[in-house]
Write a structure and sequence with these properties.
The chain is mostly helical and about 190 residues long. The protein is about 55% helix and about 5% strand. Pathway: Cofactor biosynthesis; adenosylcobalamin biosynthesis; adenosylcobalamin from cob(II)yrinate a,c-diamide: step 2/7.
């Protein structure tokens, strides 16, 4: 099987419904999501212990959902069903809450890092934010399936919480940004 088609040799690619230039914002958006997916796969190689099996499985599920998001952004033809759902967003919110409850209270911003897996997850978080910014720009020009945007917004928060829970499980303390002010309230008022 040949994986090259030569159809993109003139700088265009196919969406579901039309052809566009390869630097089209829609292509940039789902390409950045693909970049996040690759980073997630790399982080997973450091989560192979029994202590992190549940985190590994969660990330594998997210990899499938990232494909869903990218695929949904590639759809411009009417009548094609979307795969990204609001339930996926709600599932991320539950995990974020669970992970944040399992970590020490946080008052200041933290430096990205700690364990190798957490550092890579922080990279995934930053690239997810870029994907989100791309999608916001795209939404100003074209209609998209809104749950994709919501999912990306929650996903960056999920990655933040996940990096913290990884470090917590590995007994690695997060390093607070030393010149930062208190930005998170630890009391529940």
């Amino acid at each position: 099987m040949k994986i090259y088609t030569k159809t993109g040799d003139k700088g265009q690619t196919s969406l579901v419904g039309k052809r566009v230039d390869k630097d089209h914002l829609r292509v940039e958006s789902y390409g950045t999501i693909d970049e996040v997916n690759t980073i997630v796969g790399y982080a997973m190689t450091y989560l192979d212990s029994e202590d992190t099996k549940d985190l590994y499985e969660s990330l594998q599920k997210i990899q499938h959902e990232l494909f869903d998001c990218g695929g949904d952004l590639a759809v411009v033809k009417e009548g094609i069903p979307f795969k990204t759902t609001e339930k996926m967003v709600e599932d991320l919110e539950k995990l974020i809450d669970e992970y944040m409850d399992a970590t020490p209270p946080l008052e200041k911003f933290i430096l990205p890092g700690g364990s190798k897996a957490a550092a890579i997850i922080h990279q995934a978080r930053a690239v997810t934010r870029r994907a989100e910014r791309n999608v916001v720009s795209l939404m100003k020009q074209e209609t998209i399936h809104v749950p994709v945007f919501l999912y990306l917004n929650r996903l960056s928060d999920y990655f933040f919480a996940l990096a913290r829970v990884i470090n917590t499980r590995l007994n690695i303390k997060d390093i607070e940004y030393e010149r930062g002010a208190i930005v998170f309230r630890t009391d529940k008022k």
